[in-house]
Amino acid sequence: MHVRDAMSKTVLTIGPAHTLRQAARLMAERKVGAAVVLDPAADGPGILTERDVLEAVARGQDPDVEVCADHLTPDAVTAMPDWDLGRAATAMVNGGFRHLVVCQGADVIGVLSVRDIVRVVSGRGELAPA
To answer: β-pairing, 107-113 with 99-104?
Structure first.
């Protein structure tokens, strides 16, 4: 099975100037654990995860003031849609993260999470709608 078969094709994208609260609200509304941060000045997509927000709040930072640009992973590890899921899982384990941004050329076309892989491998549930 390939990344394209398991990834979520609906991607939450935000800008680097969004506050952490705005990002957290959008992630909660969409029930996702990560947002892809698109910054025209950056070489590629960044990623902001629920862990990034949690760590900022735990340090006492104000989520209404702190912006995503200061808390994201700037060069998100990306996957190709034709990678097999084993390769994607290995990249996640080796990198110590739970999300891969899926790109076709310069375009972000999906996000693959550990949960997506577990769902597919376990045979549980339908794939997320496109």
So the answer is: antiparallel
What is the amino acid identity at position 64?
D
Residue 113 CB burial class (10 angstroms; 0-12, 13-18, ≥19): buried
pLDDT at 129: 42
Q: How far apart are CA 56 and CA 99, in angstroms?
A: 19
Dist. CA 84–CA 111, nearest whole Å = 14
DSSP conformation letters of 87-111: HHHHHHHHHT-SEEEEEETTEEEEE
pLDDT at 75: 85
Q: What is the mean pLDDT of each run of 10 residues along the chain (130 residues)?
A: 94 97 97 94 93 97 97 93 96 95 95 93 60
From the list 10, 12, 46, the residue with the least C-alpha distance to 26 is: 12
Q: Where are the domains of the chain?
A: 3-122
First to last CA, the chain: 17
- According to the CATH classification, is domain 3-122 in 3.10.580.10? yes
pTM for the predicted model, two decimal places: 0.87
